[in-house]
Design a protein that fits this description.
Chain lengths: 337, 337, 337, 337
């Protein structure tokens, strides 16, 4: 149940209203938007008389029942798009940054060369895997702590904010000056990890699990936001289907659905979805056209020798070409690229 | 195994070459493109010495083995895009027509009103279901023969070529002046029907089955083309997955894959895929961006009262708006809209 | 809406009741069971006052609304199991026949050898493909009419009833003395074919499509039964999932669901589901345990040289061993094997 | 690459062989079975000359290449079934224990009543969720530490060993006298958690993720076993498909596949797969018939009031009846029940 407040209501009246409901055993989410301010009531609201509450509280403009299980991330609660800031890069509501970088960070030189090149091509954020979830215990597990250092150095040299995947809740301190932590697809329903990153102040990039519904993705985001961290960016990266030409099936309808249902920004990772380099440019353009708020693309200085997922990485020149193609299309879509 | 011929080879030399191989028990497909002419050998080619054939036949420029099971629809055999003509409307290689109309034809007035309106908005072909495959025997099964007459009348009045779904092989004669026959998703592997439409001269719109792989779709097209009808247009209309927000999951990666693997045009039906009106515009734009050769969109003069699938139909005004949005984007993609 | 009649109601009263409702625009299904007789009303029953009808018609014992879309195949309409007779072999309600034979019939000798052997091992019905739906137009398409003759001969020699797949509605006459026609998975939603076999008197074996829900399977059966043919046997043969070890994923839960929802017999085809010979025996035993009414198993005299699907066929000795194992377990399940 | 050793080879020769290979940069797994002892070499074995190694090392009987990515859990390495002991309950190679209990532990009385009853019915291990992974942050999250205490008390009173789900790697100490830790489906690819439980000595119940392949399940088991803990029991609990009647689709073929590919015991959880009480008994019987090594079944003293998943729980009487039915069938399958 969400109550949209009248404009310019004094803060103490709001606090009083919230306190009253919390004393009755409800949780509340207080959400300030540019258009309106909302208070969301969570708990067993079946017995609550909506009309009565609206009529007897002069701070309330109107009220609505939310039937979806997700509340804090629901567009009903926060009608305008949320803009998340990663370092000084904005994402959401017309800002369309591209995140680029290698699947795995390998050496200082590699990360630096890639970072400089993708920055020049227009990328706004640098990605790189330091801790790698691999299905085989015998496969390369990433450069780990040393890998995070490589990213930090690249950030220092290029000024690009950085994002890297966190694998478990004991690693939080290791990500101290990493600008955004990524929750990988396999951890999308690792609820204890979600609660821990929900206590952070920094942005969280939440990837959709490969067999998770849109609703489950939004519920996982709800774990983070309801823990206190509003800075969540969702990411569609392909779902598991029977099709075998592509590694996964990129679900671009999900972008259109999420833009309707939630106020959070949502980006697309075409590289992991397709698993094939030549499919990345067409899927990137389609993601922009369908309404995504950004892209995450793998780019590598030497894809043939990449320690991980080389087959899906663009080389730096291909990445540059794609960025030029996206630039023209971003103008049409009125996106700040 | 495909042999690309040298330019300007005399026809009798080609015939001689073909006859020789057919006498050895192989089937052949002879394919004339704008760039080159190819002869495709079908049968057990494992024992054939490719280099030897090339060296001992002076009409051959070079030869390649095709590992895919689909031969006649393979881009290796026919490198440039195939252009299919529906009436005088071209589709493929830069021509991007929009097919529009109601899910089911209902009355003369309805079809005519819709046809006139979508034509004015820029649609090039009129669609309309006369025979409707319905999962329930108690549901409306379409206006049938009478429905085809309504479409013919609308064609006569507006000049738009028409497309409608054929349900079984005994109906071929009923479709006499229907410009394109549609094979529905449920019939994609009705091989006897494929063989029958393969004997026709008119274009066939082949929809992907909702649990069929891209390879199976191409194999079904192979049935038609190898029966003698090259005029096949493929159509992606969503696949069945675990996701429930959308009726099906539109697989736009499939478009990018098909454009690489095959020379046939491929279009997208966002209406059936999503099942929700508001998702049609973003998915239509994404389909254009990913490289589709056209769109098939449901439009209705009164979606709320449609006898079938009203929830996914745009009204005529919404359709017009979408067409304006597509027009700008088609220019960027260098498509003739 | 279904009305269960009181015992021993005179036929003319029943006819009068049916006529009344048909004049009001409803369809009716009249179903005689061993426990009770039912009349099912199909149409827009929302406005029908159930209690009023029961109170004002003395032939009615009680009435129920059916919320499922399938009516005639619904267990609510026909509470006891339907027994279908294939030749003189019963299937359903405790009768558990095994159908066996080759994927494709190849020669008279092959069919006869297999038929004699599987009969000796306890099989009750002979299967064999004459018309083969193949994803490639270049693959072996079956022995066709000649193949049906081979089956007829084997029937004559062994006395086993025969079942073979029909591919399209023009073939009905070809199946004249074939005891049961099979609708293959790819044709499960070929509604025009379903209507045609619904006019036959002989049993129909309806295989579940590989991406069709249980409800869609029951709706396809409804097409046949509502066309007048009650002799439908359902068959689960695996569904398409992301798993790749097995060709398809056998959905044994579907058997338990169908036994609750419908009165029709349902059997399991473990050979096509698994696609691997060694998985057939464990899956066959599981099918018996979960409550199936029979099995369809591929057996071949020389699987290594089979023209089709040899990898999944048991040889005749393996088939015999499996039958011994099933025999003991059928006793436990109180099935007539 | 696996080397099967001759019988009665002195330990120092084995150690010398292992040391040699580890010095060359390979990992080794040393596996003692009842039939034979094996050493598995992990690393880049492509350049290793298998025949040469066998001929020049007199401790080796023969060698094989393993093409699967999973090594330590591969049946090639350890030909006979592994028996895992949970408390003093054996599982695997003919031992077929049933694990039963509530989805969530709620009160001391509830757990105790259920534990006593299921023990009397023949259950060998008590299950109960203390930490509950829930898709909504607002849903009941389990009794947590207090819940584990309730299980311990029930263990003390009934003597049944206990199993409960661990949610993250910081909880290991909390599970000190819990006999088996469960890795839930959502955590199947939480590799850091797998490594941590791989350092424990106690058995791990590893549930298949709902969209994970059999191979991925075995690779996750490989994480645990290669970390040093051989006591892994696999659990099939349904996969996500398009079917909606059942919550998930129980993949019983997976049991037959796993029994061929791996030496680890594998059990079935029909309650979570189906999500519907009435489907549990038929699926439990099918699981036994297909070759599973045990079952995990939800039983509750008052399913209608269960705090979690009541719809799928058997009541104690229904559980007792099912156990009687299983008992007869276990004899046929020669399982120690």
């Amino acid at each position: 149940m969400v109550f949209i407040l009248k404009p310019n209501v004094p803060k103490e009246k709001i606090d009083k209203f919230i306190t009253e409901w919390e004393q009755k055993g409800f949780s509340t989410i207080y959400s300030v938007g540019t258009e309106h301010t909302a208070i969301c009531l969570i708990g067993n609201t079946i017995a609550v008389d909506l009309d009565h509450v609206v009529q007897t509280n002069d701070i309330i403009d109107f009220g609505k029942r939310i039937t979806e299980q997700f509340k804090a991330v629901n567009r009903t609660v926060h009608e305008d798009d949320t803009i998340v800031k990663v370092g000084d890069v904005s994402i959401g509501e017309g800002f369309f940054p591209v995140i680029a970088g290698p699947c795995s960070v390998e050496t200082h030189e590699q990360v630096l060369e890639i970072a400089r090149s993708v920055k020049q091509s227009g990328a706004k954020i640098l990605r790189g895997g330091a801790f790698k979830p691999r299905s085989s215990p015998y496969a390369f597990q990433g450069k780990q702590v040393e890998g995070l250092d490589m990213l930090r150095l690249a950030k220092k040299e290029t000024g690009l904010p950085i994002v890297s995947e966190i694998m478990n809740q004991t690693q939080v301190d290791l990500f101290d000056d990493v600008d955004m932590v990524q929750i990988g697809a396999r951890n999308m329903q690792n609820y204890d990890l979600l609660k821990v990153v929900g206590k952070l102040k920094k942005p969280v990039l939440l990837k959709r699990g490969l067999a998770n519904t849109i609703e489950e993705l939004l519920m996982s985001a709800e774990y983070i936001v309801s823990s206190g961290n509003n800075n969540v960016i969702l990411c569609e990266r392909g779902i598991r289907t029977f099709e075998t030409y592509t590694r996964n099936t990129l679900d671009l309808s999900a972008i259109a659905v999420i833009k309707q249902k939630s106020h959070l920004p949502v980006i697309v990772d075409p590289s992991h979805a397709a698993g094939i380099r030549s499919l990345v440019p067409p899927l990137a353009k389609a993601a922009l056209a369908v309404g995504a708020d950004g892209l995450m693309i793998e780019a590598h200085n030497n894809p043939a020798k990449a320690l991980c997922d080389g087959a899906q990485s663009l080389d730096l020149e291909q990445f540059g070409e794609l960025m030029s193609e996206l630039k023209v299309r971003a103008e049409i879509e009125k996106k700040i690229f």
